[in-house]
Amino acid sequence: MLDIQTHMDFEGQAKAERWSRLIITFFGVIGLVYGAVVQQFSQTVYILGVGFLLSSLITIPPWPLFRRHPLKWQKAVNTEPKSQSHSPSESSDEGKKKKK
Amino acid sequence: MHTVLTRGNATVAYSLSVLACLTFSCFLSTVFLDYRTDANINTVRVLVKNVPDYGASREKHDLGFITFDLETNLTSIFNWNVKQLFLYLTAEYKTPTNQLNQVVLWDKIILRGENAVLDFKNMNTKYYFWDDGNGLKDNRNVTLSLSWNIIPNAGLLPSVQSTGKHTFKFPTEYSASSI
C-alpha cells in the first residue's frame, strides 16, 4: 500500500473546509450569472464543475500550508526497564498493594 | 476533515448542494413568464366522408379530411429553461351526442436551437379526424387551435394555447371522391 501521509492539522482542516466552500460558492454564482446572460444552463453546470475541480485540487491534497500548526505533543516519557534483582512475585505484590 | 476521503466527500456533497440551488434559481427565473403568442391558421380543403371505423365497431362514423395553413413564430418562447416544445393542433367542436369533442390532428416537436419559424401551406394532417358518431356533416362551428407544451430543464410543464384560432364548417354532403 502507498504510505503517503494525508493528515492535516486542525487549523489546516478549518482552512481547507472554508476555502473549498468559498471556491465552490464563488464559481456557482459566476456560473449562474454567465448562464443567465448567454441563456444556456449547460454553461452554468460546466462552470460549477470547474469550480469543483479547482476546489478539490486546492483542498484535498495535504499541502504544506495546511500543516503550519502541528499539534504540540508532549515529550515521550521513558519508563525505566525493571532491574533483574526483582523477582516476579515481588512485582506482583507491589501491584496488589497499589490497588488499595 | 482528517483524511482525503473525508475531504473529498465533503467537497462533492457541497458541490451537489450548490448545483441543486442553481437549478432552483433557473426554475425561479422563468416560472412567471408568459408563453403565449399568436398563430395564423387557415383551412384549405375541407371534406367529410362516412365510412366504417374498422378500429372500433362496424358502424359508419364521420371521417373529416382537411388540409391547413399554419404560420407562426415561436423563437421568443425559448429561454435557458426550455428544452423543447411539443406543438399540437386541436380541432374542437360540439355534436348532438357529445357536448365537447377535441381531436388532435397534427403535432411537432421543436428542439431548442432548431428553426422555430413555421410557415406551412396546404399541410396534411398527421392523424385521422374521426368523429365519435356522425356529428361532422354540416357542423358549422369547428375551431382549430395550436397549443404547445413546454418541456423545461427544471420546473413546471405548462400547456399553453396560442392566441390565434380558426373556425370553419364542414360541407353539408358527404364527399364521394376517394382520397
TrEMBL record, chain A:
One of its GO terms (biological process) is signal peptide processing. It comes from the Eukaryota. Its main location: endoplasmic reticulum. One of its GO terms (cellular component) is signal peptidase complex. It is a multi-pass membrane protein. Keywords: Endoplasmic reticulum, Hydrolase, Membrane, Transmembrane, Transmembrane helix. GO terms for molecular function: hydrolase activity. It is found in: Endoplasmic reticulum membrane. The chain crosses the membrane at residues 21-39, 45-66. Residues 77-100 are annotated as: Disordered. Component of the signal peptidase complex (SPC) which catalyzes the cleavage of N-terminal signal sequences from nascent proteins as they are translocated into the lumen of the endoplasmic reticulum. Dispensable for SPC enzymatic activity. Belongs to the SPCS1 family. This is Signal peptidase complex subunit 1. It comes from Drosophila willistoni (Fruit fly).
Automatic annotation (TrEMBL), chain B:
GO terms for molecular function: hydrolase activity. The keyword Transmembrane helix applies. It is a single-pass type II membrane protein. The keyword Membrane applies. GO terms for cellular component: signal peptidase complex. It is found in: Endoplasmic reticulum membrane. Keywords: Endoplasmic reticulum, Hydrolase, Membrane, Signal-anchor, Transmembrane, Transmembrane helix. The chain crosses the membrane at residues 12-35. GO terms for biological process: protein targeting to ER; signal peptide processing. PROSITE patterns: PROKAR_LIPOPROTEIN. Signal peptide: none annotated. InterPro entries: SPC3 (IPR007653). It comes from the Eukaryota. Belongs to the SPCS3 family. Essential component of the signal peptidase complex (SPC) which catalyzes the cleavage of N-terminal signal sequences from nascent proteins as they are translocated into the lumen of the endoplasmic reticulum. Essential for the SPC catalytic activity, possibly by stabilizing and positioning the active center of the complex close to the lumenal surface. This is Signal peptidase complex subunit 3. It comes from Drosophila willistoni (Fruit fly). The gene is Dwil\GK11711.
